[in-house]
Amino acid sequence: MLSREQEAYYGYLAVMNSTSLTDGVALDIGGGSLQLVRVRDRQELDAQSWPLGAVRMTERFLPGEKAKKGQIEDLRDHVRKELESAEWLAGAADRDDRIAGIGGALRNLATAAELEHELPSFGVQGFSLRRKSLGKLVEELADMPASERGDVPGIKKERGDLILAAAVVVEEVLAIGGFDEIETTEEGLREGVFFSVLLAEREPPLFEDVRVASVFNLARQYHPEPVHTDHVALLALQLWDELAAAGLHDGDQEERELLWAAAILHDIGTAVDYDDHHHHSRYLVLSAGLPGWSMRETVLIAQMGRYHRKGTPTLDEFGGLTEKGDDERLLRCAAVLRLAEQFERARDQAVKAAHVAVSNGKVDLTIEADEDVTLARWAAERAGDVFERAFGKELRVT
Q1: What is the three-class DSSP state of 99?
Q2: Which domains does the chain have, with CATH numbers?
């Protein structure tokens, strides 16, 4: 059995190795206790544990079939009083801190919020549960008998009688810290213990870059030809940088990272079947998740992989998870990834680079190679239509 200190430590490792949290709070809520770890530059500064778990709070404050308003207020008062000992928590969001958390109850609440808003649901890795949505869930759950709370979509039957107390505790943590949302992850204490062994040579046992590690981890699970995909990524980033230098896009670093991840993962669907492997690649990215990347970013990476061969890039049914401008972002990255894939169509790394020049309203793309690359040139020209839609200029390949 783990001590409270061990639970806090392994929870911290689980959060830090599966989210992009740098400064802020790592939360873990279980049946018996709540752990909060103060994090600065990914390092643990302070870890505390309180007996505020879902089971304890239910037994003490919400034992009956129906929750009374006064009981819920008593629970809130108790949580606020207990957390006074974490002086650093008050107003944490004002310092640009963030919060991310683990725990089955938190995952259930995030899933319920997804379904409530009719968002595509493929897990909660990287999902941001907003305090406003959580408050609405608390109201809904409080109006229901405990025996019926497990019928709420996203809430597991075995957690139905405990979920209200957990939701109230998390809501109060967010309120005290001034947080508008909490990032959720599908990792847990078990994974925290695993990371402590896997990364034992590091102190603390943390990935140097969670986002890079998660992309390569997924790629290694399904990758048939890493030499090919590494070269596609190289060509895509070279082309991306040259297009930015030519003034054809802003050179946004976030887009560049998304393009890199999509290039590394675009072919993992061949592990399922080569035919329609672009569809399979999307499925694997979405179903496996990408720790460290937000759900929005994961969707964009998956959609870039989906359209690396053919079709008109679109967000499809995932628009509700994205932001304004993501349609154009997807189109640009998919166009560049498709060109890089066509340059490497023969899987021989014959195309070393592609150089961009803009003249007379057209983009001249010159292939650098030491041997005949007629196939690559022909294949790249076929991607001219999506390129023109993305960048507003006709493409010529020489």
Answers
A1: strand
A2: 4-198 (3.30.420.150), 211-397 (1.10.3210.10)
